[in-house]
Amino acid sequence: MTAGTAAREEAAAILQRAARGRRTCKPVRDIIGADDVDAAYDVQQRIVADRIDLGATVVGRKIGLTSAAVQEQLGVDQPDFGVLFADMNMTGVEQIPFDGLLQPKAEAEIAFVLDRDLDGDDFSIATVYSAVKYAVAALEIVDSRITGWDLAIADTVADNASCGLFVLGDIPLSLNRFRPHEVEMTMYVDSYAVSCGSGENCLGDPLNALAWLARTAAEHGDPLRSGQLVLSGALGPMVTIAPGMTVRAELGPLGEVTAVFSERPVQ
């Protein structure tokens, strides 16, 4: 049975209170159904609409759960997507404040910036390839409002695909200069290699992930638009981060991307 309006509103309210209070909350799957992805996206849309009403600016989307390693880490078996806001962008920030994070994890991926809308009915690889202006290395700091990352697919979808923050590299490359599925990734924490992978770990090719998102976003009535940023999904396992850490990822021709996290202030 599909969750009704009252259940969806209740789930959205629980997640919103957690985000605003900077505290974790119980899973919402018992309210909307652990496998009811449509209800979960409706909850996500309610939360996104509320943020927009409060003045937040949408800058793109993120694709989550594209890596088999990450799916195994979280116990889910399909990708999802969330909405990126301007205040999630930590590019150029000398030290990322840790206070606003709850239980963050880092993952390295390829980000795409779109040069045109993807709002038709053709979401082939050739079509999405031609829509990409350039790609850039990215670190995504995923963060769940659900206590202990105790997730079913409905939990993470409702929670805006566990969006947190992101940092972009500084080498934009057009797709005619490299092949996303061939990119090799190594991620380091404080100079120690902690995660390795490649573009092939992202649904076989990050462009496959982009095509999936373009089609799915259009089906939900909110297609991808020119100028938007798309985080295409992890190239390897995500890693838990703590205050004071420095996270750096190397992504072949896309170069490096680094995030430095502040020490948590003494209480």
TrEMBL record:
Species in which this protein is naturally found: Mycolicibacterium mucogenicum (Mycobacterium mucogenicum)
Any Pfam family matching the protein: FAA_hydrolase
Native organism taxonomy: Bacteria, Bacillati, Actinomycetota, Actinomycetes, Mycobacteriales
PANTHER family referenced in this protein's UniProt entry, alphabetically: 2-KETO-4-PENTENOATE HYDRATASE, ACID HYDRATASE
MF-aspect GO terms: 2-oxopent-4-enoate hydratase activity
Superkingdom of origin: Bacteria
UniProt KW keywords: Lyase
SUPFAM superfamilies with a match to the protein in the record: FAH
Residue span, Fumarylacetoacetase-like C-terminal domain: 102-259
Protein name from the UniProt record: 2-keto-4-pentenoate hydratase
Any coiled-coil regions, as ranges: none
InterPro entries, sorted: Fumarylacetoacetase-like_C, Fumarylacetoacetase_C_sf, Hydratase-Decarb/MhpD_sf
GO cellular component, one term: cytoplasm
